[in-house]
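Case study 2.
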Amino acid sequence: MTDAPTPLLKRLKINTVAAPDIGLVESWYTEWLGYSVCERSTISADLATSWGTPAMAGRPSILLQPESGDAVFLRVCEIDPVPGYKPMNTLGWNAFEIIIDDVYELNEMLLKSPFKIIGEPASLGGDLDFIHAMQVEGPAGDVLYLTCDRVRAPDTLLPPPGAFVGRPFIVILAGNGVEATQKYYSETFAMKREDDMQTSIGVVANAQGLPDDHIFDMGFMALAETGNFIEYDGYADSFGARPCTDGQLPPGCSTVSISVDSIDALDLDYVGDAVSDPSMAYGGGRCRTARGPVGELIELVEDP
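Prediction:
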């Protein structure tokens, strides 16, 4: 039997939140999630153009890092307010999932916070009953899944948190159904096609005004390095692209940056040229941004 190819996407590097008030995002994430600002900058014209969003040039940006010191970052970039944006009602990156030491203890803390709890802590049930998660909405319509492994068996696929609130380890992508999404990532990046699931996703159902037990198609694909995943959720055909100010990043959970060995080896629908940026998030590697099958921006970062 031939071994499956190694996925070309290696690990998550940067999850970007686009917000009208980046100071508010900073205060919530640092006070309540233990993240710290490791860099402040303005977005260069070259980087903005590489994203296909030239109006982002000169905008302020901050880089947040978990207390563990893991080099997986949350970046917050300033955008203009986007009327009509509603979380989990458009296609693209809709949520970021963070590994937690104890989601029940965190929930007790967040009850006193400005975060909106949109899903209370609960077991995923079935074969995944050892995984417990909650969901919150931040100040920019950014949705976070906060997840812990209650067993932490030696063969677990979840990464160790390394701190009370650890690093992002899953990014959640919404498409019209799941077939096109899975086909693109498996064929383009040699990611293994797993069996899709049919399951309720209460937090999405509530956001869309559906019954809690509404069934969605969804699935997961693993990146090359353990503890890094893409979840893909299937929305109805009535959902479309996210409203966005011309030339700026989409609001909320905006873009995802993922490490690769070589940008030049990938034949993708790039929106700009490869650039090098001095931000510590890139570690000296080049970056280039492609547009995925549902319009999502995928920034690829070369490991130097």
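The mean pLDDT is 95.
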